[in-house]
């Protein structure tokens, strides 16, 4: 297994295929808290636009993408309406007695690991690559996780993410989690 960044459309297409398998609507309600799931489906064009701002992080086994962690810079909100709404909400929050908007941060757009590779360190590889790529530019990475996604919450907590806010919208209840690199 090797970590790196997305460099081809084939890798983006593999991200889409892996996403589809792990989309919340494709996993039974009983399995969701245990297996984990993703909520958003990204089009190839949207992934290309986001990747042009900063390449997404992937782990491959030979030529097969087995895990990904999407990079969503705040500027991606101009072509991603859901991300724009998320950032608007994030900017109203505080962390360590300061408004989130006063920090330099980016959003981890989504993370997903192929079922056959779970528990083998892929999650850690993805986030360590994020940290390596971004630590000098940003104070932290932030993302939102469904409160029923126990697998994802546990993995993020193990990495060092802290829950800074919980809220409900029309879709779900969310934990806003942050990994502070300072």
Characterise this structure:
This protein is globular. With 182 residues, the chain is α+β, with helices and mostly antiparallel strands. It has one domain (2-180): Gcn5-related N-acetyltransferase (GNAT) (Aminopeptidase), CATH 3.40.630.30. The strands form 2 sheets. The chain has a 7-stranded mixed beta sheet, with helices on both faces. The chain has a two-stranded antiparallel ribbon with strand order 4-5. It has helices spanning 9-22, 32-35, 44-53, 81-90, 122-134, 150-159; strands at residues 2-5, 57-61, 64-72, 94-95, 98-99, 105-113, 140-146, 162-168, 173-180. The model has no long low-confidence stretch (mean pLDDT 89).
Q: What is the strand and helix layout of this fold?
A:
Elements: E1 2-5, H1 9-22, H2 32-35, H3 44-53, E2 57-61, E3 64-72, H4 81-90, E4 94-95, E5 98-99, E6 105-113, H5 122-134, E7 140-146, H6 150-159, E8 162-168, E9 173-180
Parallel strand pairs: 6-7
Antiparallel strand pairs: 1-2, 2-3, 3-6, 4-5, 7-9, 8-9
């Amino acid at each position: 297994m090797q970590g790196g960044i997305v460099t081809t459309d084939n890798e983006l297409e593999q991200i889409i295929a892996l996403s589809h398998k792990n989309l919340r609507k494709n996993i039974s309600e009983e399995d969701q808290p245990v297996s984990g799931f993703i909520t958003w489906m990204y089009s190839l064009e949207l992934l290309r636009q986001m990747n042009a701002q900063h390449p997404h992080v992937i782990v491959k086994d030979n030529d097969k993408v087995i895990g990904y962690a999407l990079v969503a810079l705040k500027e991606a909100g101009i072509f991603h309406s859901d991300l724009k709404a998320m950032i608007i909400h994030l900017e109203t929050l505080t962390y360590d007695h300061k408004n989130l908007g006063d920090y330099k941060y980016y959003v981890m757009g989504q993370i997903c690991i192929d079922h056959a590779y779970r528990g083998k360190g892929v999650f850690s590889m993805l986030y360590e690559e994020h940290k390596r790529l971004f630590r000098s530019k940003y104070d932290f990475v932030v993302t939102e996780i469904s409160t029923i996604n126990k697998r994802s919450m546990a993995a993020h907590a193990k990495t060092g993410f802290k829950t800074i806010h919980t809220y409900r919208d029309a879709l779900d209840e969310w934990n806003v989690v942050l990994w502070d690199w300072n």
